Amino acid sequence: MKFYNDWAQRILAGAGSDGQAFYGLPGYSYLLAGVYAVFGQQSWIILLGQTLSEAFVAFLIYEIAKMSFKAAAKPSLGVSVGALAAVGYAFFLPAQAYSSVLMPSCLHVAALWAVVWWCMRERKQIITTRETILLGVGTGLIATLVASILSVIPLVLVRLSRQKSGRWQNILIYSIGIIVGCSPVLYHNRVVANDAWVLTAHSGLNFFIGNNPESTGYLVIPPGLRANQAQMLTDSIAVAEKAIGRGPLPRSEVSQWWSDRAKTFIRENPIAWLRLLGQKVINFFNAYEYDDLSIIEDLREAGILTPGLRFGIISALGLAGLVVSVGKGFRQSRWVIAGLAIQIASVLTVFVTERYRLAAVPGLLIFAAYFLASTLQGFQAKDWKRLLAHVILVAATVGFVHLPVPNDAAEASSNYNRGLRQLKQNRFVEAEKLLLEAWKYAPENENTNFALGNLYFKLGKNEEAKKYYRATLQSNPEFVGALNNLAQVALGQSMPATAIQFLETSLALEPNQVRGLFLLAKAWLQNGSPEKAAEFLIKAKALDPRNEELLFLEKEIEAAEADR
């Protein structure tokens, strides 16, 4: 959320681009900036829009189910299935959560299932040029928010190719529409940044995270990268530049470097990669919730979410309903299966999180509702063979969604994120419990060690803090935050020479960091050299002239110089 919000603030300040290809999809941040420009800093406006988009998804679920299970023998079947599935979506906890935060996940869900609904609609006339243009431009615009929406292209092409006339014309128009929708990003990357990249150059990093020897099918941050999204993107550029031995690199080259590492793993370990793909499929349908941002858990603990449905029950019933619907020969439901398939395929290229599998839930809910309706019909008809088959089938799907998954890293990530939020709110007891639990799963993780160091530093337990900061540097000697904080501990213990050593190393890694320059000025002042302190303070003030800490330190330096 902070990543998108901070970017929106930079856009409003006229600094939305750094002159290089976008390293992160810009569409949502520009949407936020537009809302802020019109309504002021009112995030509830965009959250209201997201809630309405989720209501639209519930409508789509109802309409798609009606078309999927339209049966002459039972005309009300589709209506019943649609109503049940739509209500289920309203009470699905991740859908509630992600409509309540500044992230584009729910907009992606609405766009995906709107396309499926469009493909399923019965028409007396051919698809018009205007309709095709709107569909293409809409797909392109959503792609600037969530690139995986481009997976709907095969569905649309199949639907357009089924026209009796004008099919090739509309296919061409649709393709041009996508380019028009993406054109602001394409123009920026190709013309402004002069870089050969289409949407976002961080796709190579995501591809590597999902396909490397340490991958589990979930999001596991590679060594050397910090967990915060903005910091992770910055670190990924620095790691690539260091490995290649030159910089600054074009963002396309950074992305290609990460992507090449993933391709090397796939090429050299095809069997291991196939096992990893199989694990991702298991993870995707599994009852285990990998809430990598801890959003669902935090909102649930705060009492913001209503009691509701979890993914496991929807997955088990949805898979069972899919099998039954195929056996019954509901032709239109094949579009729903296709919608599920393209979402699963897009996730398998990277890794599984609740955000990424959220877009599959409407389809699974439709099949889950159909399974329940079919089971009820069996009871009413006293069709014991059907009921027995349903029991066996659902037992198999329940077993499948409860297969063991490699969740140590997932649990560590969840506890880390929750602990970090507790730490920021100065809830030290809760933070310590969660961060130590995360440390137990991953004792060498630099981010967890750094967070524990920050916790004990805030508590005034300097020796404990130093222990975890040093552990951070053992995992990643270039962790700037740990170097700075060790320097701050040293200053608190009146060891300015030690602090200067840490800070010189830190600033060699990141020369233009205000905090490092501030601390170094402070260290030189404590070391008895106000002239040297003033030198670094000037550099810091040039980067952040309104920083109150810098202004206060300036007065201290002036007083020290006057006393000499």
How would you describe the overall organization of this protein?
It is a single chain. The chain is mainly α. Among the domains are: 2-301, no CATH class; 479-564, Tetratricopeptide repeat domain (Serine Threonine Protein Phosphatase 5, Tetratricopeptide repeat, Alpha Horseshoe). Helix content is 72%, strand content 0%. It has 28 helices and no strands. It has helices at 2-12, 27-39, 43-68, 77-90, 93-98, 105-120, 129-143, 153-161, 167-192, 203-210, 229-244, 251-268, 270-285, 295-301, 311-328, 333-348, 354-357, 361-381, 384-401, 408-424, 428-441, 446-458, 462-475, 480-492, 496-509, 514-526, 530-543, 548-563. The longest helix is centred in the first third of the chain and has 26 residues, at 43-68. It is globular, with a radius of gyration of 27 Å. The model has no long low-confidence stretch (mean pLDDT 91).
Discrete helix count: 28
Distance between the termini: 49 Å
> Mean pLDDT, rounded to whole units?
91
Largest sheet: none
Radius of gyration from CA coordinates: 27 Å
Q: Could you spell the SSE succession in H and E letters?
A: HHHHHHHHHHHHHHHHHHHHHHHHHHHH
Query: What is the 3D form?
Result: globular
By DSSP, the count of extended strands is: 0
Strand content: under 5%
Decide which structural class fits the backbone: mainly alpha
What proportion of the residues is helical, as a percent range?
over 70%
Write the layout of secondary structure elements.
Layout: H1 2-12, H2 27-39, H3 43-68, H4 77-90, H5 93-98, H6 105-120, H7 129-143, H8 153-161, H9 167-192, H10 203-210, H11 229-244, H12 251-268, H13 270-285, H14 295-301, H15 311-328, H16 333-348, H17 354-357, H18 361-381, H19 384-401, H20 408-424, H21 428-441, H22 446-458, H23 462-475, H24 480-492, H25 496-509, H26 514-526, H27 530-543, H28 548-563
Helix pairs in contact: 1-2, 3-4, 3-6, 3-16, 3-18, 4-18, 6-7, 6-16, 7-9, 10-12, 11-12, 15-18, 15-19, 16-18, 18-19, 20-21, 20-22, 21-22, 22-23, 22-24, 23-24, 24-25, 24-26, 25-26, 26-27, 26-28, 27-28
